[in-house]
Amino acid sequence: MIAVENLRKRYGKTQAVDGLSFTVEPGRVVGFLGPNGAGKTTTLRILLGLVRATSGQATILGKSYAQLERPFCQVGAVLEASGFHPGRKARNHLRVLARAGHAPKTRVDEVLKIVGLEGAAKKRVGGYSLGMRQRLALASALLGDPGVLILDEPANGLDPEGIRWLRDTLRSLAAEGRAVLISSHVLAEVEQTVDEVVIINKGKFVAHGSVEELTRGAEKRVRVCSPQAETLKKHLITAGLKIDEDGDALLVTGGTSSQIGEIAAKSQVILHELIPLATQLENVFFALTTEEQG
Amino acid sequence: MIASLSSEWLKLRTTRTIFWLLVALGAVITLSVVAGVITNDKERISSPHDQLDLLGIGLLALLIALIMGLIVSTGEFRHGTITPTLLATPSRASVVISKAIAGMLFAVALVGLAEGLVAIELAIVLPAKGVAFAIQSGPAAAFVGRILIAAALWGAIGSGLGIVIRNQIGAVVTCFVWLFFAEGLINAILRSHAIGSHAGRFFPLQATGAILDTGARNPADMLGRVSGIAVLVGWMLLATFAALVLLKRRDVS
Predict the structure, then answer these.
(1) Interface test with B, best of A17, A61, A97 (most B CBs within 10 A)
(2) How much of chain B is in helix, strand and coil states, percent to nearest 5?
(3) Which residue on chain B is closest to A88 by alpha carbon?
(4) Is residue A6 in a domain?
């Protein structure tokens, strides 16, 4: 559905995207991850015909965005929460886009309801919070009832309830057979939402696979807090475990929480916290992008 | 193209900018009409020709049409709405042409309203001063028709320049400097004895003067009406073409 092939984009001396290739299949939610400046937004903008690639191809449904018959109704996009005239009411913003994009008028009220903005539809966008703007941006993307969704940091500015709503919405959209490509830097959030991830760094492809595939075999980390941290650290290092410090806490790699607990008990060290870190994707992400940087 | 044009027209109607511009225009026109009638002797505003000159107060709307074209186009970049605009209409040529046509239609509507307001106010204020309303429909229609042609072209020029310059304040200041200072200065230099050129006739404001018969009194310094229209059409095409080329070449990021 979405295919990026050997894509390159150069801005002066900066190679923003460097030979990137990946695909997104229907019914899948794919996370598009990378550190700031990795080339995520540039890639998404090339896919949508807003930025010209230096070389390579970025197609949706086998065509470039501009070549699609009714692009707005085939591809929905959220690129930023700032593409609104502050003096225009939300409903009018959607009416403007619906007219230009050949979306049915009736969709305006439908999408306002989907994103939970029906009560604020007649309010000028200048008075919207960032979270409300994100919802309006998503409403714009859904106007044409598209089969493909491309979302750049859609969780920015959303409160916890909004994030849960976004997660559920994306899952249900994918369940309807749509392909969803979502870039984000909130890794813990992405991990709960996506089926697969594409990781890039410095414009280059780093990894592509399901969260399970990428995290399988990854070293697990445990967060440990103790009033005798220095003593514990020595015993853990002696046991062959790797230690990183995170403020007052120790981040232990290479051992399970039960192993660490046993070492602490044998050494008569008091523990205040012993928490296995659940966000494995974050570990994989940092490991992969740090390797690349190195 | 029709969908894009319809969308551009809706954009124009759905912000408060147009409301405040109309209020400002209405206030300035009313003040100008009242002042024009009160400060002149009865003899100087009695003939149909004199009253036709008063009808020219509506020309103020030309400037508003230009500014509105600039604001609407530069606003796309200022507020970032160019991104959803190009997502809904990926053809950049369609966007530029739609904006130019919407600018033309808006300018015609605005100037039509302004001239209607001037005519209504004159019909009220002139008799109040004891002067009969003597504007004849034929000459008035011809005069207003010429203003509408100029307005349409200036509306499209504003839309094009707004895409070329992008910075809202920069675009408005550039146009004001050109209209109120640079064009007159350059024209005067060209016409000076040292150079002796009549090339200034081809400048946009001079061409507008030729269309409206409000330009230079020396025939050598002014084009004919039809030539004036042709030259202003040329400026409009130049602004639109420049907008098209630049929008096509630029990345929207």
Answers:
(1) A97
(2) 80, 0, 20
(3) B15
(4) yes
